[in-house]
Design brief:
The structure holds 2 protein chains of 2 kinds. By secondary structure, chain A is mainly β. Chain A is built from no helices and 11 strands. In chain A, strands 2, 4, 5, 6, 9, 10 and 11 form a 7-stranded mixed beta sheet that branches. Chain B is mainly β. Chain B has no helices and 12 strands. The chains are: A mainly beta, B mainly beta.
Chain lengths: 114, 117
C-alpha cells in the first residue's frame, strides 16, 4: 500500500527559484493538507483542500500556492523561494467518513533554500 | 482558536520503565478528538493513539495509554515497558469534530523522548 507519497524527498534551491512539491494519495480521501515542520515549532498548516478543485489557507500560507486539479493529487508551489522557507514539508490526507478521520502522512520533503 | 501545549521539550526513560508525556489544550468546543503521533528519526508521522472527547474511558493501544481529563483539558500519554524503539519525537494534536473546521489538526511543539538502555 503506497498511502501518501511525496516527491521529491530532498531538494536544495537557491533564493528566488521556484519549485513544486507533489503529494499523491491512493486512498480516495477527500481532504488533503500541507504542513511545514520547523525545529521547536511542531507542524503548522500551510494550505488544505476539502475536495477536487478547492483549496483554502491554513495558519502559515504566505509565500505558497496550492492546486488540487485531481482528487488524488495536491501540489504545493513556491513561486520565489526564500531562506525562511527552509523546512520539512509534510502532506497528509484523511477521509470524510468515520469518526476519528485520522490523517495519514507522507514521509516528508526536506527543502533547503540557500 | 485552539492551542495545544506540550510543556516537556525533552524526556528520558530507562528501558523497561514507564514514562508519561504531558499535553494540555485549550478549546471552547465539546466535540473533538485528540491524538498522539510518534515521529522517529526516519521522519515518518505514526499515529499512536486517539481519544474521542465524548468517551470517558481512556484509550489504550498495547503499551500506550492515555489519561484524558476533559474538565482539566489534559491528555497525557503513558508508555509502559519502554523499548529502545520508542525513542522519538511525540506530538499531541487536537482536531475539532465540527465539519466547519475541515478536520484540521492543531499540533503541540513536541516532546523528544530518549530511551536509555
Amino acid at each position: 500500500n503506497a498511502g501518501v507519497t511525496q516527491t521529491p524527498k530532498f531538494r536544495v534551491l537557491k533564493t528566488g527559484q521556484s519549485m513544486t512539491l507533489l503529494c499523491a494519495q491512493d486512498m480516495n480521501h477527500e481532504y488533503m493538507y500541507w504542513y511545514r515542520q520547523d525545529p521547536g515549532m511542531g507542524l503548522r498548516l500551510i494550505h488544505y483542500s476539502v475536495g477536487e478543485g478547492t483549496t483554502a489557507k491554513g495558519e502559515v500560507p504566505d509565500g505558497y500556492n496550492v492546486s488540487r486539479l485531481k482528487k488524488q493529487n495536491f501540489l504545493l508551489g513556491l513561486e520565489s523561494a526564500a531562506p525562511s522557507q527552509t523546512s520539512v514539508y509534510f502532506c497528509a490526507s484523511s477521509s470524510i467518513f468515520g469518526g476519528a478521520r485520522p490523517q495519514h502522512f507522507g514521509d516528508g520533503t526536506r527543502l533547503s533554500i540557500l | 482558536a485552539q492551542t495545544v501545549t506540550q510543556s516537556q521539550p525533552e524526556m528520558s526513560v530507562q528501558e523497561a520503565e514507564t514514562v508519561t508525556l504531558s499535553c494540555t489544550y485549550d478549546t471552547s468546543e465539546s466535540d473533538y478528538y485528540l491524538f498522539w503521533y510518534k515521529q522517529p528519526p526516519s521522519r515518518q508521522m505514526i499515529l499512536v493513539i486517539r481519544q474521542e472527547a465524548y468517551k470517558q474511558q481512556n484509550a489504550t493501544e498495547n503499551r500506550f495509554s492515555v489519561n484524558f481529563q476533559k474538565a482539566a483539558k489534559s491528555f497525557s500519554l503513558k508508555i509502559s515497558d519502554s523499548q529502545l524503539g520508542d525513542a522519538a519525537m511525540y506530538f499531541c494534536a487536537y482536531r475539532s469534530n465540527s465539519g466547519g473546521s475541515n478536520y484540521k489538526l492543531t499540533f503541540g511543539k513536541g516532546t523528544l523522548l530518549t530511551v536509555n538502555p
